[in-house]
Design brief:
CATH architecture of chain A: Orthogonal Bundle
Strand content of chain A: under 5%
Structural class of chain C: alpha/beta
Number of helices of chain A: 13
Chains: A mainly alpha, B mainly alpha, C alpha/beta
Oligomer: heterotrimer
Shape of chain C: globular
Number of strands of chain A: 4
Largest sheet of chain A: 2 strands, antiparallel
Strand content of chain C: 15-25%
Shape of chain A: globular
Helix content of chain A: over 70%
Largest interface: A-B, 41 and 43 residues
Largest sheet of chain C: 6 strands, mixed
Radius of gyration of chain C: 19 Å
Number of helices of chain C: 8
CATH topology of chain A: ABC transporter involved in vitamin B12 uptake, BtuC
Chain lengths: 326, 323, 261
């Protein structure tokens, strides 16, 4: 039922190799062309993994949802909202471990709401989450009155180490979390029945339903995963910044979709792989990082991502046409 | 049985006027000192709405034929920038304007061809083109506003043609009504309009009946491009300058206006008059909330909810009306 | 059980039609014909090639090999426009009508009568729609009601009225009775009879032998892209037909080879 036929698997692994190649080329390019080779320097790699992981973790979820056939444009706003909730728990003196739990629960509820409205209201997810994007951001701004607030967790050394520490003094914990989430989602998507349901729902909802797959539930769960990952990223980010800022996450939705698309996820749903999304997330993160280092105007990132999406999408189309001829 | 079903289909067209009246009443009553209906306030609403409104008319037509265009937020300021370059280099503003309109159409053509040839979700395609043009514009203009008052002084005929007054009525409103009438006539009384509805409602049937759905979509995108070009100058002249932030947020507000105006996200349903009212409703809500001293962020929140609510409402009414 | 005496002056005659999709041989040398005012039921199991055959007639696909004769002249049908120009109208299953549009806008979809500058001649559209509907016996209140409010049978009626209005000489119906209630099926079959009364030829594709048997003059059975039998309804029964189809699909020898013509 799912698209895990031999041919499909071949295309996907072929595509993944392609993405890996792009990643390697980009790394080499940036390594050579940044002033003082700073790109490849230890300090920069640490920064990329520490900061970039926040985005990359969410991108994994967004890609998963896209395979199920839906989009989530609200991730940046949900990130901000969850950051506020976590900050509140800290202000209330709650142990950050419990605070994290509370935030994750809230994130899941947000995702459940998105999913519920989309499937039961029978409206296109991009509208639901577009509305969500405005709603959660607006709500966050109203509740926080738009100001920044401190969110200090220094006393909780264990918590700090787990979220922002460095393994062996070198490898950022955030990077480890990114790997963990990637592995877990990979297992769910490719090794579990539920993953097959995700592919089926995205590929042909009607067919999946006739096979008694509860497509509504599948979608709602995927929405919950995305928003829950936003909550997790919010916790990590807030701990790192030791502050809440209402502007976090702006513009992330397009980057997340770009990451998924570059990684071979089909915009129509039903096709993609966690490895691809993983690599795609790395690519997007690297591009952004390199643009900052090279001191290129930030506006260029908009252009870059717009272009990157178009290019990957067209590439996929060409591949699909070749496959149809076979 | 037939009769009662038809009554419900007529009710689809009632949600927007009812919402309009409700919004006006609510804000008339609840704003401090009823400042909402103060003529000066109404005047400012009248001056601001056509910016969004004229473009939203085009978005509405595109949504009826089943596609989206998020790139207006970038195409609009880009056109304004081009116009500014024109007049700064000594071009007669009328000539510049005339050249700008086909340039706007070219933006639309680009979007349309991409959407039609790839067959991919238009909101992703136009999201990407929006980002692309925005990045390019920011890079090229360095986000600096450029005054054009010197070239298009507010007393000049050019300026007055776009933002003057005819008695108590701002000229922009007349343009808005004019476009609404023209586009409404095309949508509801012209062959092309039937093709637009058919393409949105059942593209396969439309193609089977010989309608070139690809061309229909491209035409709709080009219409939006021209409208963006038109509004960009109108807006710049009113502001007295080009600002790279022109048009920000329009893409979402336009969709909100169209949805509140009763059009379906899936295509095939919509009324020009309702879309016209829908734009006013969005503007009124924004204006009213600000007057009620709701924090600016609250407006966005509200619009977000409004879109979702109205989409569900429209879907519900439609399903009630058909079997 | 003899195959029908086919007339020597058929409206549509297809000779030796082959169609390949890549390596798939969808139609293998099919000879098919329909007469004026005749209804032919095109039956066969899934994948038999019924849809492909009518898509060749209606211009959606081009035949890979073979000849088509319309009113005794050889024709090339390369596009739906060519087919329509000849007077062939097709009513597809899901693709016939735009549900949000009114009856008259649907009937004139793509062929809207217009005044100056392309503006719709609404009065003409409304009057002629009502005429088209009543000519097949469909009574509806107004041409402005959205098609979505009509029953399944009424919707098929509108699609058929559309074909009729544009002076079709041959109307092809693709599964017109699928998913319809008993009453609605009767309505559709009545419409088909009206078409025949007006001298229009009908090709009726279906899986439902009972439906097609009651209105057709002949039944043409396709199996795996080949003609299995072409038989007059007078000379057979629904039971026999289903046996034939099942045996044919299971790969047993064709009736000819068994000595049954």
């Amino acid at each position: 039922m799912g698209r895990e036929s031999k041919l499909s698997r071949f295309i996907v692994s072929f595509r993944n190799v392609g993405v890996l190649t792009i990643l390697v080329i980009l790394v080499l390019m940036f390594a050579i062309f940044t002033p003082g080779n700073t790109f490849i320097g230890r300090a920069n790699i640490k920064i990329m993994l520490a900061l970039g992981s926040e985005f990359m973790i969410i991108a994994l979820g967004v890609g998963l949802l896209m395979i199920a056939g839906e989009f989530d444009l609200s991730i940046g706003s949900v990130l901000a909202f969850c950051a506020l909730i976590f900050t509140w728990t800290i202000e209330l003196g709650i142990n950050p471990f419990y605070g994290t739990l509370i935030t994750l629960v809230c994130g899941s509820l947000v995702g459940m709401l998105h999913g519920f409205i989309t499937v039961k209201g029978k409206i296109v997810s991009f509208v639901t989450t577009l509305g969500g994007m405005m709603f959660w951001r607006g709500l966050t701004l109203i509740l926080s009155k738009g100001t920044m607030r401190p969110a200090q967790t220094k006393e909780f050394t264990a918590f700090q180490a787990l979220t922002t520490g460095k393994l062996g003094g070198y490898f950022p914990a955030q990077g480890i979390w990114f790997l963990i989430v990637a592995i877990v989602l990979w297992a769910v998507l490719h090794k579990r029945r539920f993953g097959n349901w995700i592919f089926s729902t995205g590929d042909n909802k009607m067919a999946a339903r006739s096979m008694c797959i509860n497509t509504d539930l599948v979608k709602i769960v995927c929405f919950m995963i995305v928003s829950c990952l936003c909550a997790f990223a919010a916790v990590i980010q807030t701990t790192r910044l030791a502050a809440f800022s209402s502007r976090v996450g702006t513009g992330w939705e397009l980057r997340a979709i770009a990451a998924a698309v570059v990684g071979g996820t089909s915009l129509r749903g039903g096709r993609g792989s966690m490895v691809g999304i993983f690599l795609g997330a790395l690519i997007i993160m690297i591009i952004e990082n390199a643009l900052v280092i090279a001191r290129l105007p930030y506006e260029w990132t908009y252009m870059a991502f717009g272009f990157v999406i178009m290019f990957s999408v067209l590439l996929d189309l060409v591949i699909e046409k070749q496959v149809q001829r076979a | 049985m037939q009769g009662s079903k038809s009554k419900l289909t007529y009710s689809e067209g009632l949600t927007t006027p009812i919402t309009f009246i409700a919004a006006v009443l609510i804000f008339a009553i609840f704003t401090p000192n009823h400042i909402f209906i103060n003529p000066r306030n109404l005047g400012s609403i009248a001056k601001l709405t056509p910016d969004l409104g004229i473009v939203a008319l085009g978005i509405g037509i595109l949504m009826i034929c089943g596609e989206f265009d998020l790139s207006i937020a970038s195409v609009l300021p880009f056109c304004a920038y081009i116009f500014t370059l024109f007049v700064k280099n000594g071009m007669n503003p009328f000539v510049g304007y005339l050249i700008l309109l086909p340039i706007g159409a070219a933006f639309g053509l680009f979007n349309g061809v991409l959407v039609v040839s790839t067959g991919l979700p238009s909101f992703i395609i136009t999201l990407s083109t929006m980002m692309f043009w925005r990045g390019l514009l920011y890079g090229v203009s360095h986000m600096m506003p450029i005054s054009i008052l010197r070239y298009v002084p507010s007393e000049s005929f050019f300026a007055r043609m776009l933002i003057g007054q005819v008695g108590p009525i701002p000229v922009q409103v007349i343009w808005f009504i004019g476009f609404a009438l023209l586009l409404g006539l095309i949508l509801h009384r012209h062959k092309l309009g039937n093709w637009i509805f058919a393409t949105g409602s059942n593209p396969q049937a439309a193609r089977a009946m010989g309608i070139n759905t690809a061309m229909v979509k491209i035409v709709c995108y080009m219409i939006i491009g021209v409208l963006c070009a038109f509004v960009s100058v109108m807006q710049s002249v009113r502001l007295g300058s080009f600002a790279a932030t022109q048009g920000i947020g329009f893409e979402l507000k336009a969709i909100a206006a169209v949805v509140v105006g009763g059009a379906s996200l899936r295509g095939g349903v919509g009324r020009m008059l309702s879309i016209f009212l829908g734009v006013f409703i969005i503007q009124i809500v924004e204006n009213g909330l600000i007057l009620m001293q709701v924090p600016v962020f609250g407006v966005e929140t509200f619009i977000g909810i409004a879109v979702v609510v109205f989409v569900i409402l429209n879907n519900f009414l439609y399903r009630q009306a058909s079997r | 059980m003899s195959s029908t005496d086919t007339s020597s002056n058929p409206l549509l005659r297809m000779e030796g039609i082959h169609k390949w999709f890549g390596k798939v041989h969808a139609l293998e040398g099919v000879d098919f014909q329909v007469d004026k005012a005749e209804a032919v039921g095109l039956v066969g199991d899934n994948g038999a090639g019924k849809s492909t055959l009518i898509k060749v007639v209606s211009g959606y696909h081009r035949a890979s090999k073979g000849k088509i004769f319309f009113e005794n002249k050889e024709v090339k049908i390369n596009s739906p426009k060519d087919a329509r120009a000849l007077g062939v109208e097709t009513v597809y299953q899901e693709q016939a009508l735009a549900l949000h549009l009114s009856i008259s806008r649907n009937i004139f979809m793509g062929r809207e009568p217009s005044k100056t500058l392309g503006f719709l001649a609404k009065k003409v559209m409304d009057e002629e729609s009502m005429d088209a509907l009543s000519s097949i016996g469909l009574k509806l209140r107004s041409p402005d009601i959205p098609v979505a409010t009509l029953s399944g049978g009424e919707r098929q009626g509108v699609a058929i009225a559309r074909a009729l209005h544009f002076e079709a000489k041959l109307v092809i119906l693709d599964e017109p009775t699928m998913a319809l209630s008993v009453k609605e099926v009767q309505e559709v079959l009545d419409f088909v009879r009206e078409l025949k009364n007006k001298g229009i030829a009908v090709i009726f594709i279906t899986h439902n032998l009972h439906h097609v048997y009651t209105v057709s003059d002949r039944i043409f059975v396709l199996v795996h892209g080949k003609k299995l039998t072409d038989i007059s309804t007078k000379d057979t029964t629904v039971d026999e037909l289903s046996k034939i189809i099942v045996r044919g699909t299971m790969g047993e020898k064709t009736l000819k080879e068994e000595g049954i013509e």
